[in-house]
């Protein structure tokens, strides 16, 4: 599912978190979204997944304008996102989480399900959950309560809960947050494999630039809500405006329009 | 023109009292995120102490500080003994304050009796007359004190360290802790200050409403309404809300003597305002806090004697116990059949709360009103329309389901504690207005049903219980239940998993209303004669207590709670006056020691 963002602006009171950002991602492509803290990366994902309403601009997923659509409707279209925190039901087991994450796709309604209809459908969800867990090497912890898992394990389960839903547009918010370098490497391997198999369009935010580089050829840089750069990795890291945003150097006169400083 | 001004001014005086209490409630909410129902009892306590001392035994400079000190001490003790050990559990803390309030009120009744007496106003002169508007001196005094309190509080919050801390806590509790402000010291301050404000309001309202143990309930509910209208996150807003409630009440009372008109109007106002502004007129949006019924912070050894049994075996064991008890009760005659039928009926209400609170995480403080919708439907269809009684039960269930769905729709926008208070307002409006309409209950005379044998009603109620238990367990085990579990844990996560959170809530409310209404229909048959008091707001609180004591997490838990609370009056036979104390003591003990309720005794650790 392709993604197109047209002149997107999100405001919180007087603060403009995302300011007139436009870009497009082709179906099946992977894009890395980077930028300093407070650049508006997560807000942008929230606007795409429907958790904040933009002040202006459109979000187009596939051939559909989803700007006014409720978050759960977008999720049903195949827009899947992960969160920096939370993202799983702590009291339930790993497998239960992987089943619950898919339930919105069931055709059997809740009342019918309570009266015993849709047993085959429920069985299929369970099989899908078990299948994804096995492929991620998590079958041994399928029966463990999520609340008892280590942080690294939990992040892997979140990935499983995202992929069981057969994403068409995947939005990953810091998949490596809190992981050590070895865990991050393993995470990147798994992500690449699953993403390749699912063939889904992917936008990934991360502070670990090596991870982003491994996953995505194309990089979009945000700074203070503005789109600062958009292009191949090598071009982007060579861009003086990007260097300035990351290192805090005062931009030269040619760049000021792109990176306004807030002092 | 003159009456308009006159009623506005006297409304402002009453509003000044509500504003003081509302200010305390908002202060407490900002400092600790707890909504307290114990503050009515602090006000009662202060009022009794003050008006016992003054003017007979002590002068004002002695009586006033003494009375306020008692209220403040009660607040601090509540925080230290009940709230702090609970840890961060939003809705459980609300229920705990209900229990504390009941226990304090019980103590007041034990010491001073249930009688109400009048007291002379603190000041009788000068009565100010401006044109044709009369301003009684006592009301002017109230306005002056409220203004003084507002000024003092504003100064305190701007200048003192604690005041700044409270204001900062509203912005960001974590950042505050990182800067080294002790949250426990701040909680103590918030409880002390808010209890003191309630005490002051209690002392001042007594010359108007009289001195009695239950007088302050009304003041507290008005203050809650005001605080919600204005916004719990805005101190000035809460005060403005309190004043507004006073003025609205005064004007309505001047125009209509219709019973419950004020309650119905305030419920409509509160729902309308919260729908437009879910955090009150002046409040700011707060992050959604997940897992509202999360257990206490204290880790205690948890005995689980039956935890080794498989879930299916436990359910069969439970069903066997209920069956045996039913047969035994039926065999021992009408009296025990009646007791068992009441227990089974409450168990059905408990299951209805399991679906709404245990699964979906929505606290209803108006469940008795849903029972009432079913009860009056059954009674009216039987007595006026001539339907055979058993046929009215499905109708009762449907009417209550529609009523519950009507509360479920605002729940799309109104969340958590705000929704809990809105359901309380619904319960009060139903009791004082809807159930007192001439068409519903013939005003105060009530509706009668033909006498029925307790044994046949026992059969009906146990049949209903079996159906409800099977339905609830099926729902919990399938798609509907797990959607609600995700919703309970985190609404944002639910939406990101494609769950329509609004529809899921509506599902929970409707199903819960269906069961509560059917139970209400059976209860109507048991009581035989319905008045509005049968389905009072206090009854709603008892229902919540019952479900929490048993354990909201499972069908077995809520059934056990219902059985316990129905048998207590039989055990305490002859000591019925102690019942409220025992109820609240059990509730507090369970909340503090068994966060999962009695059900924790037989379910395995999560």
Write the layout of secondary structure elements.
The complex is a heterodimer of chains A (263) and B (606).
Chain A: E1 3-12, E2 15-25, E3 30-34, H1 41-49, E4 56-61, E5 64-65, H2 71-76, E6 79-81, H3 94-100, H4 110-114, H5 119-135, H6 151-163, E7 169-173, H7 181-198, E8 201-205, H8 209-215, E9 218-223, E10 226-232, H9 233-238, H10 240-247
Parallel strand pairs in A: 3-8, 3-9, 6-7, 7-8
Antiparallel strand pairs in A: 1-2, 1-4, 4-5, 9-10
Helix pairs in contact in A: 3-5, 3-6, 6-7
Chain B: H1 2-32, H2 39-53, H3 60-86, H4 90-112, E1 128-130, E2 133-135, H5 137-159, H6 161-171, H7 173-178, H8 183-209, H9 216-230, H10 235-255, H11 261-276, H12 311-331, H13 334-359, H14 367-383, H15 389-408, H16 416-432, H17 438-441, E3 447-448, H18 454-477, H19 479-489, H20 491-496, H21 501-527, E4 529-530, H22 537-550, H23 555-571, H24 579-593
Antiparallel strand pairs in B: 1-2, 3-4
Helix pairs in contact in B: 1-5, 1-6, 1-8, 1-9, 1-10, 2-3, 2-4, 2-8, 2-9, 3-4, 3-8, 4-24, 5-6, 9-10, 11-16, 12-13, 12-18, 13-18, 13-21, 13-22, 13-23, 14-15, 14-16, 14-21, 15-21, 18-19, 18-21, 19-21, 22-23, 22-24
Q: How would you describe this structure to a colleague?
A:
The complex is a heterodimer of chains A (263) and B (606). Chain A is α/β, with parallel strands linked by helices. Chain A contains ten helices and ten strands. Chain A has helices at 41-49, 71-76, 94-100, 110-114, 119-135, 151-163, 181-198, 209-215, 233-238, 240-247, and strands at 3-12, 15-25, 30-34, 56-61, 64-65, 79-81, 169-173, 201-205, 218-223, 226-232. In chain A, strands 6-7-8-3-9-10 form a six-stranded mixed β-sheet, sandwiched between helices. Chain A has a four-stranded antiparallel β-sheet with strand order 2-1-4-5, with helices on one face. In chain A, strand 1 and strand 2 form a beta hairpin. The radius of gyration of chain A is 19 Å and the shape is globular. Chain B is mainly alpha-helical. Chain B has two domains: 2-276, ABC transporter involved in vitamin B12 uptake, BtuC (Orthogonal Bundle); 311-539, no CATH class. Helices cover 72% and strands 2% of the residues of chain B. The A-B interface holds A 49-51, 70-72, 75-76, 80-81, 83, 86-92, 96, 99-101, 103-106, 108-111, 113-116, 118, 122, 145, 147, 165 and B 290-291, 471, 474-475, 478-483, 485-486, 489-490, 492-501, 504, 507, 606.
């Amino acid at each position: 599912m392709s993604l197109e963002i047209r002149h997107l602006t999100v405001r919180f009171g007087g603060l403009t978190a995302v300011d007139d950002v436009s870009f497009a991602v082709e179906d099946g492509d992977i894009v890395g979204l980077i930028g300093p803290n407070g650049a508006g990366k997560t807000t942008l994902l929230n606007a795409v997944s429907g958790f904040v309403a933009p002040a202006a601009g459109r979000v187009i997923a596939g051939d559909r304008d989803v700007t006014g659509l409720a978050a759960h409707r977008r999720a049903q279209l195949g827009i899947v996102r992960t969160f920096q925190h939370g993202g799983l039901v702590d009291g339930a087991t790993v497998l239960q989480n992987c089943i619950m994450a898919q339930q919105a796709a069931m055709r059997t309604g809740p009342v019918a399900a309570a009266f015993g209809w849709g047993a085959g459908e429920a069985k299929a969800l369970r099989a899908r959950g078990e299948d994804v867990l096995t492929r991620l090497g998590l079958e041994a912890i399928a029966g463990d309560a999520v609340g008892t898992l280590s942080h690294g394990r939990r992040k892997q389960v979140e990935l499983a809960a995202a992929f069981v839903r057969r994403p068409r547009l995947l939005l990953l918010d810091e998949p490596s947050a809190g992981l050590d370098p070895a865990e991050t490497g393993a995470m990147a391997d798994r992500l690449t494999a699953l993403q390749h198999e699912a063939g889904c369009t992917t936008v990934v935010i991360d502070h670990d630039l090596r991870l982003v580089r491994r996953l995505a050829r194309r990089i979009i840089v945000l700074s203070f809500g503005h789109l600062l750069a958009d292009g191949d990795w090598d071009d982007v890291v060579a861009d003086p405006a990007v260097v300035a945003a990351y290192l805090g150097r005062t931009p030269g006169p040619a760049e000021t329009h792109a990176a306004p400083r807030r002092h | 023109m003159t009456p308009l001004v006159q009623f506005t001014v006297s409304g402002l005086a009453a509003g000044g009292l509500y504003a003081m209490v509302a200010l305390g409630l908002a202060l407490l909410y900002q400092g600790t995120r707890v909504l307290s129902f114990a503050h009515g009892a602090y006000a009662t306590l202060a009022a009794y102490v003050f008006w016992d001392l003054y003017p007979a035994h002590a002068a004002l400079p002695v009586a006033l500080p003494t009375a306020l000190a008692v209220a403040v001490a009660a607040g601090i003790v509540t925080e230290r003994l009940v709230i702090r050990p609970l840890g961060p559990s939003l809705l459980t803390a609300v229920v705990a304050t209900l229990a504390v309030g009941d226990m304090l009120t019980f103590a007041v009744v034990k010491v001073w009796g249930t009688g109400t007496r009048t007291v002379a106003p603190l000041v009788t002169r000068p009565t100010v007359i401006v044109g044709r508007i009369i301003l009684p001196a006592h009301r002017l005094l109230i306005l002056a004190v409220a203004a003084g309190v507002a000024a003092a509080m504003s100064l305190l919050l701007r200048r003192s360290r604690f005041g700044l801390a409270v204001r900062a806590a509203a912005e960001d509790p974590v950042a505050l802790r990182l800067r080294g402000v002790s949250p426990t010291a701040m909680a103590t301050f918030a409880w002390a200050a808010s209890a003191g404000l309630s005490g002051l309001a209690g002392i001042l309202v007594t010359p108007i409403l009289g001195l009695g143990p239950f007088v302050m309930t009304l003041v507290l509910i008005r203050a809650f309404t005001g605080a919600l209208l204005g916004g719990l996150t805005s101190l000035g807003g809460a005060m403005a809300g309190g004043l507004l409630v006073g003025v609205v009440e005064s004007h309505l009372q001047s125009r209509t003597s219709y019973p419950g008109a004020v309650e119905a109007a305030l419920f409509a106002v509160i729902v309308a305002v919260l729908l437009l502004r879910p955090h009150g007129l002046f409040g700011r949006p707060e992050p959604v806090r997940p897992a509202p019924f999360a257990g206490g912070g204290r880790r205690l050894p948890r005995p689980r004697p039956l935890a080794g049994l498989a879930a299916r075996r436990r359910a069969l064991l439970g069903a066997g116990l209920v069956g045996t008890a039913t047969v035994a009760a039926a065999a021992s005659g009408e009296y025990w059949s009646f007791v068992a039928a009441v227990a089974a009926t409450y168990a059905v209400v408990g299951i209805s709360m399991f679906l709404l609170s245990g699964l979906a995480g929505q606290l209803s403080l108006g469940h008795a009103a849903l029972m009432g919708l079913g009860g009056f439907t059954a009674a009216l269809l039987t007595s006026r329309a001539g339907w055979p009684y058993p046929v009215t039960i499905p109708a009762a269930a449907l009417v209550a389901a529609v009523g519950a769905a009507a509360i479920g729709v605002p729940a799309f926008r109104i969340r958590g504690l705000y929704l809990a208070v809105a359901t309380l307002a619904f319960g009060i409006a139903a009791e004082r207005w809807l159930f007192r309409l001439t068409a519903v209950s013939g005003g105060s005379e009530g509706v009668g049903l033909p006498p029925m044998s307790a044994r046949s009603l026992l059969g009906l109620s146990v049949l209903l219980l079996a159906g409800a238990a099977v339905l609830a367990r099926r729902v919990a085990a399938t798609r509907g239940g797990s959607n609600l579990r995700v919703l309970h844990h985190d609404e944002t996560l639910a939406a990101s998993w494609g769950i329509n959170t609004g529809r899921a809530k509506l599902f929970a409310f409707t199903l819960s209303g269906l069961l509560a209404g059917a139970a209400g229909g059976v209860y109507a048959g048991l009581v035989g004669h319905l008045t509005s008091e049968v389905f009072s707001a206090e009854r709603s609180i008892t229902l919540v207590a019952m479900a929490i004591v048993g354990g909201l997490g499972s069908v077995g838990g809520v059934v056990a709670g219902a059985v316990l609370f129905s048998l207590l009056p039989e055990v305490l036979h002859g000591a019925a006056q102690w019942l409220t104390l025992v109820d609240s003591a059990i509730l507090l003990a369970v909340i503090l020691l068994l966060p999962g309720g009695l059900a924790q005794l037989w379910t395995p650790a999560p």
